[in-house]
């Protein structure tokens, strides 16, 4: 069993043991796409959804994944079983391939698969978080989960310096998503969430939060909403694969949200139930 596992193009070992060729295009261009999900009971959670998005991102970027979807699913499941612990962070990416530095690439280049798995925990869903807002200055491939994360790194570092957890992004006052999460609001018993367009990543956790709302009879409106609506919301939901559903009570230093804990907890409990059913776990992080 590994404490942490790394995999690159068929090589398997610890992160210190596995070596990456210098000419992998990720080193020069960040030329690749990625996915990540938690695993419970050594079962990667919602792996089919994540693989669908992974292959979609690669197709948009014209990157050839070196194996079929079912084969990659089995590889991720098998590798997760080789890592110590009960709850894990499962990360994988594909880079375009190996070549001397050149912006133009060969059309027959086959991608290189990377996997990284370590023990982890599902995030805290009981306590509120503080967030800040920032103009969304990223390029318009927000719907692709690329390795080009420098803007997200900068937004996250700024949030860390300010003592807040996340950065909610907006384009001219229209809320898009967070630096590394999706954000939705609850107002008068209905969830409002930015539609899946080129400005946001189609979040798996957001999608399953919306599906949970449908099962619970909670209305959902996928439409644009403003910073003013964010500040006036009854709840501010921040969703990601590692946290499922967290909620904010402070935005830019001002109180916000945290006014409808009953509805929030109904959604949270339904998401946890779904996780238990999928993984066979009976408790989080245990």
From TrEMBL:
GO terms for molecular function: catalytic activity. Its cofactor is pyridoxal 5'-phosphate. GO terms for biological process: amino acid biosynthetic process; carboxylic acid biosynthetic process. One of its GO terms (cellular component) is cytosol. Keywords: Pyridoxal phosphate. InterPro entries: Aminotrans_IV, Aminotransferase-like, BCAT-like_C, BCAT-like_N, Class-IV_PLP-Dep_Aminotrnsfr. The keyword Ribosomal protein does not apply. It comes from the Bacteria. PANTHER family: AMINO-ACID AMINOTRANSFERASE, D-ALANINE AMINOTRANSFERASE. Belongs to the class-IV pyridoxal-phosphate-dependent aminotransferase family. This is Cytochrome C550.
